[in-house]
Amino acid sequence: MKPNILNSLLLLFCLLTTCEAGPRINCYPEPNANQNLCETRGCIWNPVDDVDGTPWCYFKDGVGYNLASQNGTTFNLQKNNGPKNPWGIDFQNIQIRTSTIGGSVLNVKIGVDCRYEPPVDFPRSTIATSEILSFTTASSDDLFWFSVIRNSTNRKIFDTSLGGLIFSDQFIQLSTYLPSENMYGWGENAHQSLKHNFSRYLTWGMLARDQPPNSGNLDTMNLYGVHPFYMCLEPDGNAHGVFIFNSNPQEVTTAPGPSLIYRTIGGNLDIYFFPGPTPALVIQQYLAFIGKPFLPAYWALGYQLSRYGYSGLDEMKQRVGAVRDAGIPGSVPKSENWSGFEDYVNVMHGWNMKMIPIFDPAVEADYLPFQRAMAANAKFIEWEDYSQVQPNIQNLYPMAKNTKVMLGVVWPDHHVAFPDFLDSTGRTQAWWKTELELYHSQLSFDGIWIDMNEPANFGTNEQHPWYFDDADHPNDAPLFCPTNGTNRWDLPPYQTHAVYYYGGNENNVYLSSKTLCLAGVQNNGSYRFYDVKNLYGLKEAIPTQQALMECTGKRGAVVSRSTFPSAGRYAGHWLGDNTARWEDLRTSVIGAQEFNLFGIPYVGSDVCGFLGTSNEELCLRWQQMGAFHSFFRNHNTLGEPAQDPAVWPSVAAATKTANLFRYQYLPYLFSLHFQASQSGLTVVRPVFFEYPTDTETLDLGYQFMWGSNILVAPVLYQGAVTTNLYLPTDVWYSLFDYRYGSKIDSGYITVPSPTTSRIPVFVRGDAIPRQTPTTTTTMSRHNPFELLIAPCQLGKAVGVLYWDDGQSIVDSFDTHDFHQFDFNYISTSNGAQLTITRTRKGTIVLPTMDILEIFNYPSPPNFRSFFLNGQSVNINVQSSTYSGITKTLYISTKDLIDLTSSDSITLEWSNVSK
Ligand SMILES: *[C@@H]1O[C@H](CO)[C@@H](O)[C@H](O)[C@H]1NC(C)=O
Ligand SMILES: *[C@@H]1O[C@H](CO)[C@@H](O)[C@H](O)[C@H]1NC(C)=O
Ligand SMILES: *[C@@H]1O[C@H](CO)[C@@H](O)[C@H](O)[C@H]1NC(C)=O
Ligand SMILES: *[C@@H]1O[C@H](CO)[C@@H](O)[C@H](O)[C@H]1NC(C)=O
Ligand SMILES: *[C@@H]1O[C@H](CO)[C@@H](O)[C@H](O)[C@H]1NC(C)=O
Ligand SMILES: *[C@@H]1O[C@H](CO)[C@@H](O)[C@H](O)[C@H]1NC(C)=O
After folding, report:
1. Residues contacting 100, CB < 8 A, separation 6+
2. N or C: more exposed end of the chain, with fewer CB within 10 A?
3. Whose CA is nearest to atom 1 of ligand 2?
4. pLDDT category, 609, cuts 50, 70, 90?
5. Closest ligand 5 atom, CA of 481?
């Protein structure tokens, strides 16, 4: 930079006001920092007004490495003379290896050989793109840094000139500037806004823990799963994604700059950059790499009723009956096992209802499944050494007595063992499948819900755990981890936000809190629980999905509480034990969008709220919103009053309306899931995905798109009877009570949204397949198809329908039996034409398409002028209408179009001549 007057003035200004070169990199993230502790670390102590979370103790400049040598795309780095790492001995030599995968994905791997690598098999597929990301390096004053550049715009999308690269055995840090503040993702956390906020320093924990979200206020704690993935929209609207493939306890700080400081306590920094350039392409590229989501069974898109604490089968029958009597579409009640239940499940199957039981991974150490596991040589999470075993617990259980199995406490009355789903002999997975199959032979369930798989353990390291005061199992001795001495796994030098957020070890919080000891081992000692804990839910989901398919012969659906990248291949997710509060309704709207970014589109929240007492208005609004989430379940906790929709007549009525709308659009929702599984697209997606250059959409977290054509603006505030929302510039039509079918001006608008109305829903130019709804997904599937045509500017609309039998296992979309129909509509000055092209021929028999609803149809059609593939067809003029006021054309004729009659079908007609 040339010296000039401006720079000199800036320097003077900085000298006078202590400007800093960039964001501060925290040197004392642990609790209770003070000047003495800070300076002992060789860091700078400079207290400032704490409004934006600026760290008071921060690193001096120059932390990092210099470039020792380069060999092609390998860079050999050497610890420089800058400040040293307070949490371990800096590795003297590390390497950066870069490569381009499939011409599109840039991999930058920082670390050393022979360190732990997460045992996750990604497909690592790529999608061809013309966008190129390139890796460039630079250095000055003994400090090396690198950048990632998008060639087409020459934009730096990742820029580590911020410094602060640290690499030691149990502390690794990387920081970067970002090209914009428009960053989305990282998880699992409860985010108050879709877009991250870089006006302050915030550290987000990432360690899988049985931790219900707190949506009441901004809260950075770690929840059930770990997703080190973000998407960033550059200032010109190009999008890129970044995935850090690391499974250790970790955290990320979002800081002014905008910048990111990422820290993890094991493994390597194995970073993948996805070039986009559209948000949809970023996710497609990410999911091609980590694995695309499973296709849920059609019935799994139905409405589900669940609760923890039906007092018994009679109460459950009564609630299911009440919901059925209210005519509310629904198909999937859930419960835990009771006697007599098997018969009731068979009765429900007769009603086309399905059953999803809940399974926790841990098994009681004096229980038959454990005995069968031991006989089958299945493995459990173990202590490394016999000397670590707690004899007071182990000796209670003859079957566990002479083993190293780490015993803990969960819901069962006695101590439990945790299956080792990383068992490379496959015996544990085989035993697990046998257990599920055995259960299925007694109770013919249709899906599986796996819970408590962080894995959760009660009372770890607690002298007086909560369950001592509980009737269930008051006497089970809690698990104590080696936290008294210097255990490097349970007491690593840096313990991350998952510990420091809570005040640290002084408050008896450890990485092992609510889970097992991190010193544990898996796969006969080849994995350390410290490294693989975050993979537990993912690794349990794999054999669980296999077992479900094997014992039902169908694809069904699995939902899992704990997830990691690629979990969407095997399971969906619900957003955890939320609370019946308006704040939780709001964060669930954001959470579902984030999990679509993470490749888990079969996602939703516990509708009406799990913890706490729900109420009529909240439950009503939640039912209305949840009707747009793929996983749609009303779920309630123990001891709270019933909150199923039949409890309140107003909620029953609103739910019926919302569910009938959902059931009518199930062919569209199913087609979105089909595209997600086949191509890695999202189902529920942020509005900016469709309008990345419209800056008004960048933080529109409380609205969302359902696919690319339907926009939903749920009512999320108590007492609201109108909704303020933003419609990006486009041709929009109302799909709710207010001016249904009419064109709506784009921009910021306020629309009425009383509780008696559907929530605001809009459609933009497209053809959307739907079906006349009934009360179960199974029956709805037999009803005639319909096509909603909402033309865009030039009177055109296109759309697609995917259809299979709704339940067959998908081995490969190349061989899967399904239909694909493409719709192409155009209206001209004197008529209109709809072409349906069968682009994939399946063998499934489908209902006919009997109804076309066309918005913005310019003038009256001649109902006698309809031709189908050149043959005149009689339109039922009794049931078909045209309104010159709303400009809606509604054509309804029995058996109008047999979709499978030809590979190309054209329906055309002309208008009444003027
Ligand atoms: C550079 O890398 C190549 C390919 O990995 C290797 O064969 C060669 O020995 C390396 N050269 C040096 C000087 O390390
Ligand atoms: C991309 O840009 C970098 C420099 O920014 C250049 O070295 C590289 O050759 C470019 N790649 C291609 C394929 O154009
Ligand atoms: C971002 O955080 C700042 C500081 O806490 C706050 O004042 C501001 O309202 C936040 N912005 C948004 C959009 O939430
Ligand atoms: C279901 O519950 C009954 C009653 O508690 C119990 O006897 C039975 O063993 C349970 N069945 C299974 C498969 O767990
Ligand atoms: C750790 O210390 C606590 C109290 O200081 C003690 O009660 C506990 O037994 C100790 N645990 C172990 C594993 O030594
Ligand atoms: C388990 O590890 C022990 C000790 O390293 C080894 O002796 C044994 O052969 C291993 N067992 C299996 C089944 O790999």
Report:
1. 106, 107, 133
2. N
3. 151
4. very high
5. 13
